[in-house]
Amino acid sequence: MNAIKEEQKIYSFQDYLKLEEQSQEKHDFFFGEVYNMAGGTLDHNEIILALARAFYNSLSHIKCKTYANEVRLELKANEFYVYPDVLVTCDKNDLSNKESVFIQNPSIIVEVLSDCTELYDRNIKKHYYLKLPSLKYYLLVSQNETKVEMFEKIENRIEYSFYENPDEFIEFQQLGFNIKVTDIFGLPF
Questions:
Q1: Average pLDDT over residues 18-30
Q2: Domain-embedded: residue 48
């Protein structure tokens, strides 16, 4: 997704929620600043759908929900909210609260990189994502080549894995499944 900063205005959290209710567009909320999330490319969308489908199919044996593009994630209460490309939550509070307008405890977050948002996804979002106690995996996926970067939280450390071979399997050991790189990209670029 492409982030486009709205007019120079500082919003309260309540103003942001009102804006989201009234708008047909989605907005990230970053410490009072609001960014319009513009549409992505066809490849971007296909990768998001492929990942969501792979996670949904792989996690049918446990109580987890997979969301793509439309679900807001709370990174810091009343201050920082984003719409990840794909997220998975297995948290009973997230799953049982049907009235909530956001997820608080994701297990997996995926961002599909675009030229406009790559630095935001790699730096600011990653910094906040990896602070989430519930998070087990953060994936950065290229839309221009067969390339997946995975950050796995294990106890007090982060392990980094890199995948570019279409026949490789991406292991999600903490959740008991794996997906093949071709499940994300289809045929190699």
A1: 89
A2: yes
Its pTM stands at 0.90
Q: Is residue 62 part of a domain?
A: yes
pLDDT digits (tens, 9 = 90+) for 86-119: 999 999 999 988 778 899 999 999 999 988 889 9
Number of domains in the chain: 1
Q: Can you give the CATH number for the domain in which 67 is found? A: 3.90.1570.10
- Check: CB of residue 68 under 8 Å from CB of residue 179: no
| Distance set, CA 150 to CA 3, 15, 30, 163 (Å) | 23, 35, 24, 8
Mean pLDDT of the chain: 90
Q: Which residues contact 170 (CB under 8 A, 6 or more apart)?
A: 139, 148, 150, 161, 163, 178, 179, 180, 181
Contact 148, 135 (CB under 8 A): no
Cα 33 to Cα 120: distance, rounded to the nearest angstrom: 14
